[in-house]
Amino acid sequence: MNLRSHPLQTLAIILALSWTLSTGAPTAMAIETQKATFAGGCFWCMEHPFEKLDGVISVISGYIGGHKENPTYKEVSAGSTGHAEAVEITYDPTKVTYEELLEVFWRQVDPTDGGGQFVDRGSQYRTGIFYHTDSQKKTATLSKAALENRMLFGKPVVTEITRAGTFYPAEEYHQDYYKNNPIRYKYYRSRSGRDQFLDQHWTDDGKAIKNSAWTDEELRQKLTPLQYKVTRENGTERPFENEYWDNKKEGIYVDIISGAPLFSSTDKFKSGTGWPSFVRTIPDAGIDEVEDNSFFMKRVEVRSADSDSHLGHLFTDGPPPTGLRYCINSASLRFIPKEELKKEGYEAYLKLFE
Questions:
Q1: Residue 205: pLDDT above 80?
Q2: By residue range, what is the domain housing residue 265?
Q3: Residue 182 predicted with pLDDT over 90
Q4: pLDDT for the residue numbered 213
Q5: What is the CATH number of the domain that holds 131?
Q6: Which of 111, 167, 187, 321 is the most buried (most CB within 10 A)?
Q7: Is residue 207 situated within a structural domain?
């Protein structure tokens, strides 16, 4: 059609295009979506947490990680194909990031259980992160390490991170099961043990509930010999030869065992003693002060309430405004830089640096 000879049609096209741009109506421009694949036990329970996220386009239940082509639910649930029940998520990375999807994933599962998930047992119900790109692999590895370092569960994190292979969508009646069969879904979920576990470890707004129930043997494997000696045997590291005595970066210091926030770099000062020194603790820090009469001295020992770990000692020769000096062993702490607080679940403490 010659638009010059049809001014009314030309005007109509221009108006239509203007309406499309002003209202955000779909255009021919395609969204560059990405995929994320997670296994977290029964896939019925893994759809809703992701579907409600802004930026998630679709969540499909299915099977991944096995050796048989086009497996059926009956075959997978019998544990004979090597597959895991999983969800494949298609998302818009401009609205929701892979890091945010990982945060949601960790809050749906028991990542310390290598034999299944809750009432469902067998490798077909294992947890797993199936990465699609090298960038996802790196991000998932860092996320797992951060979770492991926080020691929230009292056990090692065993969730495997592997390259995504062929994903087979499950039968239609499994898709959106929680929507299409709400009564049966609620009955199953309430008896599966999943919610009971999640309630023990996460608050309603997604914050971690600290758990320091590590056995002595597990702590010996998890901690370095020096960290174990300091925290469990009330040891003292060498001055000027420890990790944080001269650390000048912004961030917070948390309990090496429980991950409980204890001190902030905003309260750290150079005491000249060769150990990290602070004028105060983080507000509401779980600190116990215990009278210590060892070595023929009268001192105040500082312990972490969460893990009952020895941290150091408290003295009254510090600078203003408190006049206190919390003299702490680096080996009892883990430092989290300011720029990593959100990623590691300590976003609330960013206000300390405003």
A1: no
A2: 216-353
A3: yes
A4: 62
A5: 3.30.1060.10
A6: 111
A7: no
Query: For the chain, percent helix, then strand, then coil, each to nearest 5?
Result: 35, 25, 40
Q: How large is the average pLDDT for residues 263-270? A: 96
Tell which of 201, 229, 256 closes a domain.
201
* Domain match, 186 and 49 both: yes
d(CA 326, CA 313): 6
Q: Is 70 left (phi over 0), alpha (psi -120 to 50) or beta?
A: left
Q: Are 49 and 103 in contact (CB under 8 A)?
A: no
Q: How many domains does the chain have?
A: 2
Among the candidates 136, 169, 201, a domain finishes at 201
Alpha-carbon distances, residue 280 vs 113, 315, 319, 324, 346 (angstroms): 39, 11, 11, 7, 19
Edge-to-edge strands, sheet with 261-264: 261-264, 251-255, 333-337
> Looking at 42, 89, 96, 223, which residue is catalytic?
42
DSSP 3-state of 289: strand
Which one from 59, 96, 129, 327 is the annotated catalytic residue? 327
Task: List pLDDT tens digits, range 49-70.
Answer: 999 999 999 999 999 999 999 9
Would you say residue 272 has pLDDT above 50?
yes
Active site residue 327: yes
Looking at the fold, whether 197 and 226 belong to one and the same domain comes out as no
Rounded CA gap, 45 and 48, in Å? 7
* CATH code: domain of residue 282: 2.170.150.20
